Amino acid sequence: MVTSPQLAEKDLPELYSRYYPRREVDFTALRNEADLVLREGAAEKRHREGTDNQGHYLVKPGQKVLDIGCGSCVSLLEVRNLGGESWGVEADPNVRAIADHFGLNVHIGSIHDNPFPGQSFDLIVLNQVIEHVPDPPALLRLVRDRLNPGGKVVLAFPNAGSLNRLVSGRKWINWHIPYHLHHYNKRSFSLIAEKAGYQVENIKSITPNLWTILQLRAYGDEAAEGQASTAWTGSGPSVSAKASRVMRWKNRFASRATGLAHGLIGPVNRLADALGWGDSLLVVLRKS
User: Fold this and answer.
1) 88, 122, 123: which is closest to 102 by C-alpha?
2) Model's pTM, two decimal places?
3) For residue 171, with 0-12 CB atoms within 10 Å meaning exposed, 13-18 middle and 19 or more buried, which class applies?
4) In Å, what is the CA distance from 111 to each residue of 49, 55, 249?
5) What is the pLDDT of residues 135-160, one digit of tens each?
6) What backbone phi and psi angles, to 5 degrees, belong to 109?
7) DSSP-derived 3-state class of residue 95
8) Positions of E strands within 159-279
9) Which residues face 121 on adjacent strands?
10) CA angle 223, 279, 87 (to 5 degrees)
11) Are 279 and 205 contacting, i.e. CB atoms less than 8 angstroms apart?
12) Predicted confidence (pLDDT) at residue 216 exceeds the cutoff of 90
């Protein structure tokens, strides 16, 4: 499935600079967040919360890792903490200040710019990125050429074949228009990966508990077409002043349901993940 109209690569920096504002950064908070990966039981905690749906956690000591769409750079700091060497690519120009502060190798722009020429990688990670890319097959072919022998590409992205998507319909938070341009399930992505010269080594679903909480809140959201859902932005009224009584009741119900369901979300998500119906996919690829 494809969002229309499509965006071009040149549209992304300005779009993300506005939507994912990082102009004011708490460097201490970023460092503290990255250091959590070193705590005893960190992996088990990520599993319970569904936050292990990120490819860079598969790094092994000494490996060279490229994170395409590295965002706030926390992932690059976590790779360092886990014993790997990290490089990043990010479209948002605000990330330059973060990279400079921590002395990180980050290219502001696109992987199509051929950043870090001559450097190849053991692990290339795209965490919640491929759905944002105008031409996913071209990107997959490009990163394939940057792999070391035996290297792997790991991607995490929303699962359009999830139970949550089927139940939520048009209110599924991961349509996330216009930022998400492509929507995949296990089969559709596997076909694209194989055509790009990969073999799917592993594919599984992992649902962040936070996503489910945001989804419950989104059921009461009545934002107009083209207006960002408050489930993601965290600001603005979910229901306008002109909303009907029915819509207002739905919003109150969704808020209460979130509180009541909070203790059940983790176990339910882990069951959905075990059945392959989770809301996010984690895919490991290697060269064919």
Assistant:
1) 88
2) 0.82
3) middle
4) 31, 17, 46
5) 999 999 999 999 999 999 999 999 99
6) 150, -135
7) helix
8) 198-205
9) 147
10) 100
11) yes
12) no
